[in-house]
Amino acid sequence: MKAKLKAWFLPPSHVQDSYAQLHSLTQGNMSINEYTWIFEKLLIKFDINKPEEQTIVRYLGGLEPKYANVVEL
């Protein structure tokens, strides 16, 4: 039923838009907590179910390099 509701109410480009929004997310001037909150919110909002490895790589890719290196360790 969830799939039928999504098909009925969401535009066809919804999936592509959600991946684009997640892919373009970067930390920028946000704190790590803000970035993490928005990242998790997008994953839940768009129901993106990727393997854990891909999610981690995407998360680290949006962090500032000086923080990503520490988190990766």
List the helices and strands and how they pair.
Layout: H1 2-9, H2 14-23, H3 32-45, H4 52-62, H5 65-72
- In whole angstroms, the N-to-C terminal distance is 42 Å
Q: Name the poorly predicted regions.
A: none
SSE order, one letter for each helix or strand:
HHHHH
* Helicity range: 55-70%
Give average pLDDT, whole number.
84
Query: Could you tell me the radius of gyration in angstroms?
Result: 14 Å
Global morphology: elongated
Largest sheet geometry: none
SS-derived structural category: mainly alpha
What's the total helix number?
5
Number of strands: 0
Beta-strand percentage range: under 5%
The count of domains is 1
Describe it for me?
The protein is mainly α and 73 residues long. 70% of the residues lie in helices and 0% in strands. The protein is built from five helices and no strands. The longest helix is centred in the middle third of the chain and has 14 residues. It starts with a helix and ends with a helix. The model has no long low-confidence stretch (mean pLDDT 84).
